[in-house]
Amino acid sequence: MKTLLPGAVVEGQPVTLGVMGGGQLGRMFVHAAQAMGYATAVLDPDASSPAGLVSHHHIATAYEDPQGLAQLAACSGAITTEFENVPAPALAALAHTRPVSPGAAAVAIAQDRTQEKAHFDRCGVSCAPYAVISTEAQLAAVSEDLLPGILKTARMGYDGKGQMRVSSRTVLSEAWQSLGGVACVLEKMLPLVSECSVIVARGADGTMVNFPVQDNLHRDGILAITQVMPGRVDPALEAQLVAAARAIAQGVDYVGVLCVEFFVLQGGQWVVNEMAPRPHNSGHYTMDACDQSQFDLQVRTLAGLPLVQPRQHSPAIMLNLLGDLWFNSGHEQTPAWDQVLALPGAHLHLYGKLSARKGRKMGHVNFIASTTQEVRANALKAAAILGIEAFE
Ligand code: ATP
Ligand code: MG
Q: Which end of the chain is less enclosed by CB atoms within 10 A, N or C?
């Protein structure tokens, strides 16, 4: 792959990096690309998308609009994606004329839980016991062993959407009907000790680097808190999870930033949950706690620049800022950022979304400090100010 050097001028135009999708991940990618001197182009149908608002170019068409795709390809030297439900055929179409990373094949696998689990299998990484349910016969054949379980639509799920907890065969069958009888996987409900994730970045030449293991707390199926600091994750477990994430990336010849989520079980056992073919909410702490962020690495992989193993310089805690914090007893409010920013080591990131809704990701705040005690104390104070439940 040809390197796109930052600041280069091609036919009178600054070299431009393109992104499919205009959400917060696209916005942070755009910020990182611009900081390095690239121009940016975003394709997203929403006229006020978080990334579109801050990009040099915003192409406001549907993801599969041939003209929109042609426009994006015309102005971009290379194209990436920021959410996993970008239609894989659109990525494949772009790849005819421009380098696209991650590629359509890897994104297609991550978009479908059945393909994703098959990929984990091929890489020798175990996931929770499961069954595919896309027909009445498969529904009838489900083993009792998988109950209680979680029924998940094979496609288009995020933040716990398209999932139902099922305790019996009757409930399972009702749940499958209520999800529209679409292709699903039923996963056995596992007793989780914790949840972790690993972010790797892999270049077109196969070079791979990774961030340390993130310890994630989910509430109501949505990431709430990420903590990354010495002593948080057992070093032996850390080594295993990093090796698994690397194998999963390598197994699909991945190019770009990939996040792999894991469930940690009793006795040091673990299984893989899912992968996201893009930077991830659990990696937002890297923006302030590491010498390169996950978005910097996305820029580097896309532009064919060198990948250097990132270094975390400070213990970190990220608090996700959901739309719920914008409401107090039913009344809209602006959270008390002045009080939060009075705490040492606070780094606020808001995504420029004008309307808050419950469960909507509005921003995040990273805390860093020189010690784990200090970072915890300040992050807990911020949580109390904002009305986020305390955490261990
Ligand atoms: P996202 O894309 O936001 O990570 P998602 O909608 O793809 O979420 P999952 O990651 O599959 O959903 O599940 C969301 C959460 O539900 C998990 O982080 C975990 O807390 C819980 N969960 C999912 N599957 C299981 C399981 N088999 N056993 C126990 N808990 C589970
Ligand atoms: Mg998940």
A: C
